[in-house]
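Open question from group meeting: does this chain pack into something compact, or does most of it stay loose? Before anyone orders reagents, we agreed to write out a predicted structure and look at it together. Recording both the input and the output here so the notebook holds the full record.
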Amino acid sequence: MTGYSEKTMTGHEVERRALLTPVLLLLLAERQGHGYELVQRLGAFGCADADQAHVYRLLRGMESSGEVTSHWHASESGPARRVYAITQQGAMNLALWFVRLGELHGTLHLFLERYVQLEDVGGRAGRSGDGPGADARAPDHARTPDHMRRMRK
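Structure tokens returned:
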């Protein structure tokens, strides 16, 4: 996040790794794929730097829980690859993720709207008008990013 130091954001970073399971299920619902290909496709979801070993561990765990199956596919141009496909159980779990993430989307949207409203009141998020530092310029992390300005329209 530009303008944010690690120290400032400690405990506040949104953990994208938590979304890898539903994203992998979605990718497999779209079409089957081998591990490396799935890691590449994660990039569209902001997970381009996903640890391959972690993704493979998730896939093995998803296979153990019955969400995905895999089979070896012989390749003419290289070694055999394990190809993953979603199961009926995986599709049902994906539907549950859809509901949960939809609820989270509503919560996040409300949070962002309310934050924009604070910014509209003068960019003094979390400050009362007359207290100490009321005239101080908002810190870098409290200034409105471009995507927040667009939400106002």
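Observations to bring back to the group:
The CA atoms of residues 47 and 142 lie 26 Å apart.
The longest helix spans residues 88-120.
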